[in-house]
Write a structure and sequence with these properties.
The complex is a heterodimer of chains A (123) and B (284).
Chain A (H helix, E strand, L loop, with lengths): L3 H4 L17 E9 L6 H7 L5 H10 L15 H12 L1 E9 L6 E5 L2 E2 L10
Antiparallel strand pairs in A: 1-2, 2-3, 3-4
Chain B lengths: L5 E2 L6 H22 L6 H8 L5 E6 L17 E7 L2 H7 L9 E3 L14 E5 L8 H14 L6 E7 L12 H4 L1 H8 L6 E9 L10 H6 L2 E9 L4 H12 L3 E2 L13 E11 L2 E10 L1
Parallel strand pairs in B: 2-3, 2-5, 3-4, 5-6, 9-10
Antiparallel strand pairs in B: 1-7, 6-11, 7-8, 10-11
Helix pairs in contact in B: 1-3, 4-8
The chains are: A alpha+beta (123), B alpha/beta (284).
Chain lengths: 123, 284
């Protein structure tokens, strides 16, 4: 699956594409929503490592505007539930992710992103 | 039918070699292979149990994803993302343990991630499928790049020349006197072999006689590099040095000056015909 937890970690790795290669931009996506178990301990631990702007931007590309622009300092249950939904319950099933720098297209098929490159593209 | 392990010599383009002798095979045997690989090994389960809530990890060469649901006693406290070169194994990994998992199609030699984005990484029974020393080293470097330079932890397992007595495999290369000597010398490389996988095709007709079922079994020879004693440690040291990381023993960690980036082998060992090494990255 490509959920936003994974999207927040992926970057373009085409040879020579070393800057502005994150976050990848979603293109022509089909999404599915699936409930996942809420785990506040995981979210509190993961939160400091999230690239926040990338997450907010990606969620908006998928039509979800529930996250605040700035990461809140108070981690109440409402916020953690919103974060949980955005990170773990929105599944990108089909479509692609495009590098903002070199425009390389990484296809997503049946929920699996294809990050393979041809030999001459590998950095 | 020849089903013993036998020595081979790698030739030609290593990428094409691995495509033919590793990737294509796993795509074909995925279902059968996965049905035989469901039990997590104890040291790996222990490693994952020891990690704090909120950590995200990479399983580089996840196969059927059997480590993705761990730790079983604290479900959902970690997220392990599985990467593999076999799309058919990933389709199995995608829903392992009756939950949706995060999986990515990719090569363990590549680096499709933000640097240091993961808290931990595991690579289990994967690096031994790479056909040259340089490529195995590149895979270790990718793994070290994937984890946090401040606190990242990693666990690597590879197949050992030294085989379990209980192992059903016959290893002719390791039994030749000359080979055993080679294995005991630290600087000598391990052994390149083909390890057969006998695929039993499900019979198309339920009433097919036993002989016919036998005849439909197909043998696939998977490439493995069987590691010699000390070779995995050596590989990690070379990878770390290429990355300008200091390799410091556990005992000497406290004596390192400020402003140094390094890696420490927390534990090394042999378990069930495999060598393993657990690593920690740090910055003083």
């Amino acid at each position: 699956m490509v959920r936003l937890i994974t999207h927040n970690l992926l970057a373009c790795h085409v040879r020579g594409c070393n800057s502005n290669n994150f976050p990848l931009q979603f293109q022509d996506v089909q999404i599915g929503l699936r409930e996942a178990e809420f785990n506040p301990d995981f979210l509190r631990g993961f939160l400091p490592k999230i690239e926040w702007n990338a997450l907010v931007g990606a969620a908006r590309q998928l039509g979800d505007t529930s996250l605040p622009e700035e990461q809140p300092s108070m981690l109440d249950d409402d916020f953690l539930k919103t974060l949980h939904h955005v990170l773990l319950e929105i599944h990108v099933e089909e479509g692609a992710m495009v590098c903002p720098n070199c425009k390389h297209v990484y296809p997503i098929s049946n929920g699996i992103p294809n990050m393979l490159l041809a030999e001459h593209e590998i950095g | 039918m020849p089903t013993d392990v036998r020595a081979v010599s790698v030739s030609g383009n290593p990428e094409e070699y691995e495509d033919e002798h590793v990737h294509a095979i796993y795509d074909e045997i995925a279902g059968h292979f996965s049905s035989t690989r469901y039990k997590p090994w104890p040291i790996i389960a222990q490693f994952l149990s020891s990690l704090p809530a909120g950590w995200v990890g990479l399983d580089s060469g996840t196969g059927n994803g059997k480590y993705l649901p761990l730790p079983l006693d604290r479900p959902g406290q970690l997220w392990t993302i599985g990467l593999d070169r076999s799309i058919n194994l990933l389709r199995i990994a995608q829903t392992v343990g009756q939950h949706y998992r995060e999986v990515v199609l990719g090569n363990v030699l590549d680096f499709p991630w933000r640097y240091g984005a993961f808290d931990y990484a595991i690579s289990i029974a994967t690096i031994h499928h790479l056909s040259t020393h340089e490529r195995r080293k590149a895979a270790v470097k990718s793994l070290l790049h994937s984890i946090s330079p401040n606190h990242g932890r990693a666990l690597i397992y590879v197949w050992a020349v030294e085989q379990d007595n209980l192992s059903k495999r016959v290893i002719p290369v390791a039994q030749q006197a000359g080979e055993i000597q080679t294995v005991k010398q630290k600087d000598k490389p391990g052994v390149d072999v083909f390890v057969p996988w006998v695929l039993k095709e499900p019979s198309s007709k339920p009433d097919t006689p036993a002989q016919a079922t036998q005849a439909s079994a197909k043998v696939f020879n998977r490439f493995y590099h069987m590691f010699a004693a000390g070779e995995l440690e050596q590989l990690v040291t070379e990878a770390a040095e290429d990355m300008k990381l200091q390799v410091v023993s556990k005992q000497l960690r406290t004596t390192v000056a400020a402003g140094v980036s390094g890696v420490t082998a927390v534990q090394t060992g042999w378990e069930r015909s495999n060598y393993y090494i657990e690593l920690e990255r740090w910055r003083t």
